Amino acid sequence: MSFVADSWHLFQRHLLATLRLPIWIAITLVQPIIWLGLFGQLFRRVVDIPGFETTTYIEFLTPGVVVMNALFGAAWSGMGLINDLQEGVVDRMLATPVRRGALIAARVLHASFTIGIQSLIILALGLALGAHFASGILGALTTLIPAMLLGAAFAALSSGIALMTRREETLIAIVNFFGLPLSFLSASFMSAALMPDWVRAISTVNPVNWAVTAARAAVAGNDWTTVWVNCALLAAVVIATGFFATQAFRAYRRSA
Q1: Is residue 78 a contact partner of residue 171, using CB atoms and an 8 Å limit?
Q2: Can you say how many angstroms the Cα of residue 68 is from the centroid of all Cα atoms in its chain?
Q3: Neighbours of 58 (CB within 10 A)
Q4: Dihedral (C-alpha) 90, 92, 98, 102: value to the nearest 10 degrees?
Q5: Radius of gyration of the chain (CA)
Q6: Phi and psi (nearest 5°) for 29?
Q7: Could you tell me which of 150, 204, 199 has the C-alpha nearest to residue 179?
Q8: Three-state secondary-structure class, residue 56
Q9: How far apart are CA 246 and CA 160, in angstroms?
């Protein structure tokens, strides 16, 4: 219970910091809005290719943009931790009775919560641009589950990297190096049936693709088994990255 209480109080701290500067939520939504508005129009004719999954590209693209926003939004969450490390906030926290794991859990929870809010905005924008979700509101809201799980996984990974490197430049380089390849080696923009064989093979072990597949199956509403299987895989990734972040935090404490 102490761990849960500490995580909750630290989550509130991060949430209050976000509420003081809500412009950051809007700024991080600029890129997803561009993806929906620009790519949705630029590639709208690709649905005419035989084998494509939907009748409108905006309907196909919206779940992918929800997941991509989760990926990039969470991947940058380690920047806040680096700032706290540089300003001595983490060291001051270590001098208190707060549970050490709560320092990581609160950041992961905050990243997932922020992604959930942003995902709702993206879904609303997709609907405004003409997307139709066959499974209705329930299916659309279910897309938040894989997005938030992916966000939690990459927030923990980003925090672990931040603790190991303690440099903003290094974290930026790592995020840029892995972010776009993970996106394009998934079905975010293109139907899996139309991918080259080698891309499709890699996508089967890509957590981003698991989230996209789950989100797209949720809005289609015709294969809930796929939704929950992929969510279970993402939950396993959250556990793995959470363990990595915990070990990185222990290494930081030993070196501090």
Answers
A1: yes
A2: 7
A3: 24
A4: -10
A5: 19
A6: -90, -10
A7: 150
A8: coil
A9: 7
Strands (E), the chain: none
pLDDT for res 99 = 86
Compute the half-sphere exposure of residue 197: CA atoms within 13 Å on the CB side of its CA. Answer: 0
Measured CA to CA, the distance from residue 20 to residue 2 in angstroms comes to 27
- Written as six digits, the tokens of 203 are 């996508």
- 23 vs 26, 27, 30, 196, CA distance in Å? 5, 6, 11, 40
Give the integer Cα–Cα distance in Å for 241 and 7. Answer: 17
* Amino acid present at 206: N
Cα-Cα end-to-end distance for the chain: 28
For residue range 139-187, what is the model confidence (pLDDT) as tens digits? 889 999 999 999 999 999 999 999 999 888 899 899 888 888 998 899 8
| Closest C-alpha among 82, 55, 252, 218 to residue 147 | 218
